[in-house]
Amino acid sequence: MFTSKILTTGAGPSAAASKAARYAGLSFHYILQLLAVGALLSVLLIGQAFVQKKRAILKEMEQRGGLLGESLAGACSLPYFMGDGEALRFIVLRAGQLEDVVSIALLDSRGNMDPAAAVGRPDPPRLRAPDRLEVWSDARSIHVTAPLSIERRGSAGLSMLSGEDEAAAEPSRATFLGHVYVVLSLERAMASLWGQVWESLLATTAILLLGSAAVVLLFRRTILRPIQRLIAAMRDLRGGNLAARLDDPASGSEMVELTRSFNEMTRDLRRAEDELKQINAELESRVQQRTGELKRANEDLRESQEKVVRSEKLAAIGQLASGVGHELRNPLGAIQNVIYYLRDSLADNPALKQDPALPELLDIAQKEIKGATNILSDLLDFSRVVRLAPAPCAVETVLEETLQVLQAPPSVKVIRDWAAGIPAAVMDHQKMKQVFTNLAQNAIQAMPRGGELRISARLESGDDRGPGIAVEFKDTGEGISPEFIKKIFEPLFTTKAKGTGLGLAICQGIVEAHGGRIRVASEPGKGSAFTVLIPLKEPPHDHERSQ
Amino acid sequence: MIMKEANETIRMLVVDDQAGIRLSLSGILTRKGYRVSVAESGEQALEEVRRNDFRVIFMDIKMPGMSGVDAFVKIKEISPRSAVIMMTAYALEDEIRRAVREGAYAVAHKPFDMERILSIVEESLHGKTLILVMDGAPASREGVKQALEKKGYKVVDVESAEECVRQVKERRFQIVLLDVKSPEGEMRALKEVRDLRPDVAVIVVTARSAEDLVEDALKKGSFVCLSKPVEMDRLMETVDRCLEEENRRGRAP
Questions:
Q1: What is the edge-to-edge ordering of all strands in the sheet holding B11-15?
Q2: Which of A337, A380, A429 is opposite residue B24, by nearest beta carbon?
Q3: Which residues of A are less than 8 Å from B111 in CB distance?
Q4: Who has the most CB within 10 Å: A303, A350, A391, B24?
Q5: How far apart are CA B117 and CA B127, in angstroms?
Q6: Would you list the DSSP string of B88-117?
Q7: If we measure between CA atoms, which residue out of B111, B202, B218 comes closest to residue A329?
């Protein structure tokens, strides 16, 4: 149809277009109704005008017919009375030439037609009122009968006036002669009327069409296009583009208002989204922060828990070690004394010459006692409260002293990797030397087939405890398997065939008494690195471990 | 064998509730030729001391009943000339300190090196003057040690303040020579030595010209304070003077 054609050309071929079509179609529906109402109205108006006009034409034609009939009767009365056929014929012929006249006939008083004075083919009707002018019409023509009469008044003059009043007033005075019968055709008048109707119908249709086209164009320009733009922008908006913005339409205050509202809405949305984003980011960072805090708190908790467990364990072990260690010293002392006695008494005894294994076995016993004593010393060392004698001290000095007492086999290459100028740290010189010696010895023992021991020292910016000195003992030995790495600081844990498993525990106790810690990195088959971290700030004086 | 004859007249007492130690130690001492008595408790020891005059007494600290230190204090009243060597298997810090302050000749930790114990016994028998030298620098330490040994003193030399304190807890030194380098470690050792042995003569040698250190040293109870460089003669002279002072004090009461 008309509207749908405009729509399909106006909107694109898409789902959105159908939406637009529905939207526009609705509007066009109204326009169509408007058009229909306009058409109906104009048809009604035209019809009414037609009816009125037709009535007017009929009336006019009837008047014309009446006038023609009367004047024809007036003109014909005298000649008819006189019997002047020639004049009658002339008059009738002349009248017959008048417009719309179809036929004229003269009828006598009895109603017989004078065929000589007739035009066309008249079919005179039977007279109903013989002495009066009569006008009637059928669908195609006007019929008029006018009486032919002579006034019988004083004057001989013939009056052409034959009004009803006059006739009624003086009926007895007139002499009725016959009738004039005239038929006028309505064809011409009706044709012109129909022409007018068609003309006005055409004009109305044209006006309506032009008007609606104009309305459609206007609609498209002022409503449909902005709406389409709005829909596109909405779609854009829904797609997530909050930057969607409409240009102000040229006209239409509602559309301007709508556009403005839309722009305000998107602006508000944008602002809301920005706020949301900001809040979101804030929330996220806060969540992150809180998560970090929680994690840290958790770690701290676990660390302190582990510390508590460890220190309790250490205390228990320490107590046990202390008790057993001391208790064992008495029998050990007695055995040692006995060995001394035996050796002394065997020195110049012939039994010694008979059995040369005796002094050897006594040596072994003595050595074992020495070993046992060392183990006890380690145990007691471990169980003792670490009491520091801290003093500012250069770590290089401690390292040099460590290397002096360190007995490295020739297969182990010891590399000194430290530069001068490491600031002095407050530490217990002897205890730190004990730690360094222990770590260096461990490193050497981890390399039975030789290797490289790299001892390095450097200043480290450190962790939360502030800057400190990091002393690293790195070997190229067997390394520590991951399952053991967590246990190596536990007292009595050892991977060595000969070891008490107290060395590292003691080292850790000493380093922790300094406020520092020992870091381990190891790769099985490649070697281990033990790093002692000594904080530069003053360590606490006593490090409670047991007792 | 010659020594054995000479030792015949020297009486010694071994006091320990632990039979192993008591018997093995008395056995060794007997083999060395001394006349050895044994006691199982502090009470028994007192009885023994009242009966005989012992040159050297080995006293275990931890015993049921009367403790070794209490017994030693009582023995001191009966026989002040006896050298009492305390023995312990335990780290009884307070008891050890008390014994040291009361003038125990030595504190031996079990199990002990018999050779060392025997040399301590020898020193006590010969009445050697015992001097502790603490110096961080090995060269000067060695020099001082040799000079003192040449004069017939028994010298124990240590290089750290900690060792110094440990030695003071083990032997009854007559003089402690302290080389003070830093106020922290050595001054603390000085204080500790004073605390352990209020009677000992402490000679502080300091390389520092700082007067406050000297003052501090004197306040902490050093007998005398010398500033480096110290000539050996002057040092020896100071040592002699200290010993004279001590002898005079020892005779006074």
A1: B35-39, B11-15, B56-60, B83-88, B106-109
A2: A337
A3: 329, 332-337, 369, 373
A4: B24
A5: 15
A6: ESS--HHHHHHHHHHT-SEEEESSP-HHHH
A7: B111
Tokens of A185: 């055709």
CA quadruple A464, A467, A468, A471: dihedral, nearest 10:
90
Return the residue matching tokens 């009445």: B127
Q: Write out the two tokens for A385.
A: 């409260």
**What residues in B contact A326, CB-CB < 8 Å?**
89-91
Whether A341 and B28 lie within 8 Å, measured CB to CB: yes
3-state DSSP assignment of residue A415: strand
**A340 reaches B (C-beta below 8 A):** yes
Nearest in space to A23 (alpha carbons), one of A256, A255, A226, A224 = A224
What is d(CA B45, CA B49) in angstroms, rounded to the nearest whole number? 6
What is the pTM (predicted TM-score) of this model?
A: 0.55
* Residue indicated by tokens 């005239």: A182
Token couple for A250? 């040229």
Burial (CB count <10 Å: 0-12, 13-18, 19+), residue B66:
middle
| A391–B182 CB contact, under 8 Å | yes
Contact by Cβ (8 Å): A158, A151: yes
Tens-digit pLDDT string for chain A (547 aa): 344 333 433 334 445 445 545 555 656 777 788 788 888 888 888 888 888 988 888 888 888 888 888 888 888 888 888 888 888 888 888 888 888 888 888 887 777 787 777 888 777 777 666 677 888 888 888 888 888 888 765 444 444 444 444 444 444 567 778 888 888 888 888 888 888 888 888 888 888 888 888 877 887 777 777 777 888 888 887 887 777 777 776 666 777 787 888 888 888 888 888 888 888 888 889 888 888 899 888 888 888 888 788 778 777 877 887 788 778 888 889 999 999 998 888 887 787 778 888 888 888 998 988 888 888 887 777 777 777 878 788 888 889 888 888 888 899 999 988 888 888 888 888 889 989 999 999 999 889 888 999 999 988 876 666 788 999 999 998 888 888 888 888 877 787 777 778 888 888 888 988 888 898 999 888 899 999 998 887 544 444 443 3
Using the beta-carbon criterion (under 8 Å), do B109 and A380 form an inter-chain contact? Answer: no
A-to-B residue pairs, Cβ atoms closer than 8 angstroms: 78
Q: Do A341 and B27 touch (CB under 8 A)?
A: yes
Contact A322/B at CB under 8 A:
yes
Per-residue 3-state assignment (H helix, E strand, C coil) for A466-512 = CCEEEEEEECCCCCCCHHHHCCCCCCCCCCCCCCCCCHHHHHHHHHH
Residue burial B117-131, b: 16+ Cβ < 10 Å; e: rest: beebbebbbeeebbb
Give which of A456, A449, A435 is closest to A503, Cα–Cα.
Answer: A435
